[in-house]
Amino acid sequence: MPTETSVPAETAQWWRDAVIYQVYPRSFADGDGDGIGDLTGVRERLPYLAELGVDALWFSPWYASPQADAGYDVADYRRIDPAFGTLEQAEALMAEAHALDLKIIVDVVPNHVSDRHAWFQEAVAAGPGAEARDLFWFRPGRGTDGELPPNDWQSVFGGPAWTRTANPDGTPGEWYLHLFAPEQPDLNWNNSKVREEHENVLSFWFDRGADGVRIDSATMPAKDPALPDFDPDAPPVPHPYIDRDDVHDIYRSWRALAESYERPRALIGEVWLADPVRFAHYLRPDEMHSAFNFDYLNCSWDAAELRRVIDATLAAHASVGAPASWVLSNHDVTRHVTRYGRADTSFGLSLRQHQVLTDLELGTRRARAALLLDLALPGGCYLYQGEELGLWEVEDIPDELRQDPIFHRTGGTDIGRDGCRVPLPWSGERPPFGFSPEGASAPPWLPQPQRWAAYTAQAQSGRPESMLTFYRTALGLRRSERGLHGADFGWLPEHAPGVLAFGRGDGFSCLANLSGTAAPLPADADVILASAPGFDPGAAELPDDTTVWLRRR
Ligand code: GLC
Ligand code: MG
What we know:
This protein has 553 residues and is α/β, with parallel strands linked by helices. The protein folds into three domains: 9-111 and 192-460, Glycosidases (TIM Barrel); 118-177, Oligo-1,6-glucosidase, domain 2, CATH 3.90.400; 488-552, Golgi alpha-mannosidase II (Immunoglobulin-like, Sandwich). Helix content is 26%, strand content 15%. The protein contains 15 helices and 20 strands. It is globular, with a radius of gyration of 24 Å. The protein starts with 8 loop residues before the first helix and ends with a strand. Magnesium ion is lined by residues 30-32, 34, 36, 38.
């Protein structure tokens, strides 16, 4: 194992203000030409990511998986899915990233595994009452012949959260719980073997160089063992499976493990919770280091709402001494260029809108303004691959090509998440736009719009007004701006309604105009960077839907 040299405390706490870029391996870059992104593709593009100016890469699951939920159904954490590559390649990738000063975050999915995981196969084969079944939630059905599910829980992806198994002799048997797809049986965290195995998985990846983990569905692993029926519109407190107090024990032991390394590893949680106090519990000093700020992601493009969310975020994080985080997109939500181009700019998982009137030009202008806003706020930022190219949600994917289990399990009433997962355009005039090499044996796993010819990384490189140039400039300035790396933050009083204005350290301030009309710019400050392409730094006014970074003269 490589020895670690000691590092000063601020460097050791790199996650506190890092920009973390999410790589969705299936859709990033395809090195071997099978139409599916892979580790070879990522390795070839590491210089692009370093040049972009991010600090860390978070990889959505790359482990062996039948891909029933795009890798969030893990069959074996110690192997890389053959579609993506090999463990040796993952190790090489991590070493190459480190050489470029990029940290690596891997994904872990404690709530469930794949139905092809050895444990589940063994549990099904072993039959009712076997010890192997205690790693999951197997229960006899209700009704005269056990033909009804053990309770009324519904899957997050639609339909009942239970599937019936057959007994080893072929007769209908017990049911098992899956809060997501049937291919994702839930684990029983009351069983110490489940805990032990996950800690071994964490060590496996930490020992190989991972600098942290992103924890999937982090509020859900602990269950009420009584598995009671409940009304989802008026759930009991505590909820039978969301945010139960005992879930925190898991992360306390993970934190201890992360701290046992000389260079402590970071724990980053996917914590979808409306209550900021309950949210902050996950970030107590002996639990996770950071969690995605979904309130911000979900917030409308509205100054008062954003200010409320920013204040609530900063207060909740301050209460536990954790850094705030800012995020606009990921592999589960409608791309924000599209969201911001709609009349209703909020996002709710249950309200995934589809083909409503969208003004992509407006969405793009706001996406640029939003980037400067969140890069200027104190804390860390998460970027989702393709947002630096200004990509929008692809809404015209033919039904027969859609792969997301949400689409299939809801009979298409929820369009699902394929539209934000379309393979990236890198170069050239037509699909696969350099996603796959010349002479590839298969087209990209989801079709790319022809209009992306103008949005490839190649087409945007060196163009002063492109989204890619804007991201590179903004990320570079964020890194070098001293005022953005301290704890200083304060709202500036003197601005018009609909204008968000705040100061950070060192004479730095940020102004975002969402007022619907031009707003005056302060006379005593210079514009360092503006979100509107072609903005005249000598202008006296800030156009609508525009953000500027300023330095006091
Ligand atoms: C998380 C992931 C999502 C996945 C789900 C089940 O929400 O981000 O993509 O489908 O968990 O693992
Ligand atoms: Mg491939």
